[in-house]
Amino acid sequence: MSNSMTETMKLPNTVCSDALTEVLRDGAQRLLAEAVRIEAEAWLAPYWINY
Predict the structure, then answer these.
(1) Could you give the CA distance from residue 26 to residue 48 in angstroms, rounded to a whole number?
(2) Three-state DSSP class for residue 50
(3) Which of 9, 14, 28, 41 has a CA positioned 20 to 30 A from the CA of residue 35?
(4) How far is CA 25 from CA 3, 6, 8, in A?
(5) Does 10 score more than 90 pLDDT?
């Protein structure tokens, strides 16, 4: 198991059956990434030092 915080998760190599599926998958991945970023910022905010 890696301890790197910057390592990206490898997703299964799937073949999109159509363009709509690809657009929906890409949108869902962006939304999930944004939600994780917001949650991480909220969790870390009390520990940040404001300069």
Answers:
(1) 31
(2) coil
(3) 14
(4) 28, 23, 17
(5) no
Cβ atoms of 22 and 15 closer than 8 Å: no
What one-character-per-residue DSSP string does 17-41 give?
Answer: SSHHHHHHHHHHHHHHHHHHHHHHH
Q: How many CA atoms lie within 13 A of 46 on its CB side?
A: 2
pLDDT of residue 51: 54
Enumerate the domain spans of the chain.
Answer: 18-51
Render pLDDT for 12-45 as a digit per residue (tens, 0 to 9).
Answer: 666 667 899 999 999 999 999 999 999 999 999 9
Task: Give dist(CA 16, CA 22) in Å, integer.
Answer: 6
